[in-house]
Amino acid sequence: MRVLLVQAFTALDLELVYPIGLAYLAAHLPASHVVEIFDVNLHRDLPDPYRPLADKLRAFRPDVVGISLRNIKVATPGVHADDFEPQQRTVQLIRREAPQARIVAGGTAFSLYAEIFMRKLPELDVGLWGEGEDRFPQLLEALDAPWTVPGVWYRKDGAPTYTGAPPPVDFAGLRHYRKDLVPFQPYLDSSFVSVGLQTKRGCALHCIHCSDTYLLGNAVRRRDPADIVDEMELLYHQHGVRQMFFCDQIFNIPVQHAIDICRTIVDRGLEMRWSAWFNEKANTLPDELLGWLKRAGCGLLSFSPDHVDDRMLRNLDKNFRYKDLVYTYQAAKRFDLDVEYSFFLNAPGEDWRSLGNLLKFIAEARLHCGSNFRLFTLLMMQPIRIYPHSRLHELAVETGLVDKDADLIEGQFWNPGGLQYAVAGIQATAQGLYRARRRYKQLTRQGPATV
Ligand code: B12
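Above: inputs. Below: predicted complex with cobalamin.
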């Protein structure tokens, strides 16, 4: 079977993202299939960004096109935008240029909004919810009987129908993702987070807004540190990757796993620079781990505390409190690591006082850490996107903020009441400050454009 795996548009004005989901799928297909991966984002700056995909479909003549819908309408107001329309155009183009092919959808955005995608995109033959390594090969064998495969959306008498939740994949037992199907260079040129690697899947935390536990579960499934570092070595030696991002939900839970990965990197003498998302609770960032992070090439602690105020942290069901957050920037300073945060504005329970506490925290962290504090934080302050299948969504329905039947695909945010005007002002000021600082750094040639 000829299988073309297509990564649909990700956020149009953000970094490129190496399609590791598709590269994992490709690694788990039987050798009898002819497989290629095509990332439409590599052509997004062309006057007609759809043209290369059309050419590819005509030349490759796939039997199956697997389209990865990773993001949808991820618009962070004022920062970047993407939309349903480019995804729809891409799917329609595939249908037109490869009329013989079955179109199978998957990816995180598809999984979050599966039924809606199936309704809005009649060109999709089937869709696969969640992780695909074990079930995509099964589905290819069962395209005429998709109801035999768990976690599949298909059409029964024209109506989108789901076969029911699949079990999670045995993550530790997976093969490495294929690295020969998409060149790394454009991604390396794009940003320091564009090439990714996963050490675990799933998240033990319960933050009310997050949809990752719906997608991957609360059980943390880990890989063997030796296998992870083998893969980093491959990236380094065979593909010229010197900088990467760990695509885990949280890197430092469990702490010992994180330490073991760092220790293995150091033991092997691998000089990779990397970053990841970290949990803020002080006991998940002991000095032992911080020391290993520093030695193993981690340059940036990226935190998503969402707020700083204890009352708000309780509302968001975070596992840490204000004192832990102060610890995070003190720890970053002590170990000379860069640090950045992302915050929600006007989350459930927000008032002027909590908003003030948040801004005060940012000022104090910057003063404490100096240039170790990345001003990128200023761009990462936004109202919460309401994701389906999250507790925030239930709350939004209960409080009447969104209609229970709203499809949420257009991106709805928790941003009620008068504070939304303060939010708009804070965002505009923060973005202005960020851009001014960036411009200043460029003009005075003080370093790279990241501030
Ligand atoms: C790591 C990560 C990042 C990293 C990526 C680094 C890198 N180099 O890869 C960075 C920091 C860059 C990032 C940025 C953003 N991200 Co992000 N990210 C993630 C995260 C946590 C993991 C993604 C990943 O690498 N997974 C590992 C691979 C192996 O899994 P996968 O891609 O899902 O593929 C599997 C399945 O989905 C399926 N599959 C995938 N494609 C297909 C296709 C077919 C045909 C089939 C059958 C199956 C299938 O099989 C694969 C193997 O199991 C996800 C959350 C999550 N739960 O996945 C969010 C997530 C994808 N990100 C999200 C968002 C919103 C963003 C940002 C917009 C955030 C921001 N405001 O800046 C940006 C957008 C970036 C861009 N350029 O578009 C959302 C997207 C949801 C949406 N609204 O559409 C997610 C789902 C998080 C969430 N729940 O909100 N992100």
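The radius of gyration is 22 Å.
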